[in-house]
Amino acid sequence: MRNFLTIKEDFIKYKWAFIAGFCTLLIVDVLQLLIPRVIKYAVDTLVSGDVYQGILLRYALYIVLIALGVAICRFVWRFFIFITARKMERNLRLRLFSHLETLGMKFYSNTRVGDLMARSTNDIEAVRRTIGIGFLIGTDSLVLGTLSIVFMIFINLKLTLIALIPFPFLIFFVLFFGKLLFKKFESVQAGFSNLTTTVEENVRGVRVIRGYNQEEGEIKKFLKINRDYVTRNINLIKTWGMFFPLIFFLANFSIWIILRFGGVGVITGTISMGDFVAFQAYLMILVWPMIAIGWVVNLIQRGSASMGRINKLLDTQPEIKDTGMTKIDRIKGILRFRKVYFSYNEEPFLKDININLEPGKKLGVVGGIGSGKTTLVDLIARVYDVDQGDILIDGIKIKDIPLDQLRQSIGFVPQEVFLFSDTIKENIRLGNPKATDQEVMNVIKLCGLEEEIEESPQGIETVVGERGLSLSGGQRQRVTLARAIIKNPSILILDDALSSVDTEKETQIINNLRNFLMERSTIIVSHRLKSLIDADEIIVFKDGEIVERGQHYELVQIDGIYANLYKIQQLEEVL
Length: 575
Prior knowledge:
It contains 20 helices and 10 strands. The protein has helices at about 5-15, 15-50, 55-100, 105-110, 115-155, 155-165, 165-205, 205-210, 215-270, 275-315, 375-380, 405-410, 425-430, 435-445, 450-455, 475-485, 505-510, 515, 550-560, 560-575; strands at about 335-340, 350-355, 360-365, 390-395, 395, 410-415, 490-495, 520-525, 535-540, 545-550. The strands form 2 sheets. Strands 6-7-8-3-9-10 form a 6-stranded mixed beta sheet, sandwiched between helices. The radius of gyration is 35 Å and the shape is elongated.
């Protein structure tokens, strides 16, 4: 699995872009602070009476040139900072997605899809805004605010100190409201997760909802969650809404101080009219950093809350770790289970499982619901790891085989088929992305899909829709089977792979696959015992244990669980 850079490493990687953006931003701030100086000289010239048209045009030209420089430098820092923030957003999203690909089934069993979607979209966007706009505003307000105060001190130290009286109150409000904003934004993000989860579940389960006539009930449920999300946002807005008016009040209070004490200074002659106008301009410039502090705090709190939620996912360790170091030239498919035990919780679920399977042989697996059949085949592909005992392929423990090689050698058709919203061809080529159209058509013939594909106007280019809903259950199963076969696996696992196909079509497919299966170890989990008649061995599960094993005719003669199931199915066929 490829390694991805952390946020800190990304900052180091793009440090020169940030430095370039910071330097041009610094130039912009300095240029902006020169404009009040130009205005000061222009006003003092007007007040002195020693003025003529040429000098005023010169001051106007200075302002135009400074504005042009500001415009050019603003483009430059936007280019460096915002593009770099987008690149870091891309890297973080890729890192999160790649990490999700490594997590095991236990994680996904206990995590809502909507919550993962919220963290992959909304939270990453909040982090990106903190890196981009947050960096910009924070730097801009710090530099602009500091330099504004320096220029004000040059004009009049006493007046500057009086004008900065509101600042201690500003720091208090920033610290107080910052904590509140963090908590409330975390609550908003959690509400967004609930919202996306509800929408995702309803879209996926739309057939069930309509089948049970529950549209109205689901709308009411969504309305409740939607209102809760709005309420959380309103609570955030109330806090934010109190924050900014207080900042504005403090800023305007400083302006009142300047008018009150600076105006007296002009009247008494302690400062010039030009200095007063320039001081007023610097104070107006200083108002922006005072306001920006609130915005920066909000962005940082949002970004921190979102990064915390993302880090919780990134810190989740994969249950199945690739520790395999034994690379095999070609896996033959000799499969062994040696005293295997497995549990989902504390109680053992599979107990003392022993199996031997050679290439060219077929193993049938039978048992009631929840008896352990699917868990057995999941262990082979290391969807889960065993608690005790060993599973060996070609005499090597599967934990010692690299995961990519292990899973590439296994063709797995699960009970729950899943097709992507793509063409039939691309869904099949998922098993072998290098497969040609002819190879795709060959496996389609093996799986008994040829006639249905030919009847379709687009053929193998037919788009199957979301989760393959445009196809029937049997068609989806056969496309999934074709996907497994085109891998050319050494071990083929069919977990009720043809349960939605009629008996006649199932028999046809099994006959088509007869030559293909001769070179592979095949495990067939099925409720239809007729499809297991020619299996080299059949094992019968009950409560996680193998209670019967043998060939079809041997098990029928034992007159146990298998024999009873076979009699019931024969009777059903007759009826």
